[in-house]
Specification:
With 168 residues, the protein is α+β, with helices and mostly antiparallel strands. 24% of the residues lie in helices and 15% in strands. The protein contains six helices and six strands, in the order E-E-E-H-H-E-E-E-H-H-H-H. It has a four-stranded mixed beta sheet. A two-stranded antiparallel sheet has the order 4-5. It starts with a strand and ends in a 10-residue tail after the last helix.
């Protein structure tokens, strides 16, 4: 599961990916989770409230300390200087096998309605081809196709397993 600063409750949209957590791995595995600590502190300063699982990971990494059962209600406090970053604060140390990094470049996603140039190009591709359907036979839907007789036509040959009426 990738987690980051969400835009609205249960929207599924996010501003930035701040870490990764794989609950199926053993906790001692170095690939169990990663945290971009400077970006987490940035979003926490902006008012983001971590979920319980994210707060647990930030507590393990030594960034915040949980003080209550519900982290969404603000039941946590800082372990480091809240104004620290992008470099690691003095005295902070994490000895675990996981990657907890500082000095990362922001990777913010823009969801304000600005269309990138690639979106216009993608919109020109037929909908069926956007999702990986290749090699299908296009059936022309225009007046010429409707006026053609159905005997020995490409339209009839495209659907060999159907019982289309044959007009001569």
């Amino acid at each position: 599961a990738v987690w980051g600063k969400q835009l609205g409750p249960r929207s599924g949209r996010f501003n930035e990916i701040c870490g990764f957590y794989d609950p199926l791995r053993e906790f001692e595995d170095p690939r169990a989770f990663t945290i971009r600590a400077d970006r987490c502190t940035y979003w926490l300063r902006k008012g983001a409230q971590p979920t319980d699982q994210v707060a647990n990971l930030l507590d393990i990494a030594g960034i915040i300390r949980r003080t209550g059962q519900f982290t969404k209600k603000g039941e946590w406090e800082w372990r480091i200087d809240p104004m620290s970053g992008p470099e690691a604060p003095e005295g902070w140390k994490y000895d675990g096998p996981h990657e907890v990094s500082w000095g990362n470049k922001p990777n913010v996603h823009n969801f304000k309605g600005k269309i990138s140039p690639n979106v216009e190009m993608i919109r020109k591709i037929p909908l069926i081809e956007r999702y990986g359907f290749r090699g299908y036979t296009r059936i022309p839907i225009d007046e010429v196709a409707l006026s053609d007789p159905l005997t020995k036509s490409p339209l009839l040959e495209s659907f060999p397993n159907t019982d289309l009426p044959v007009y001569e």
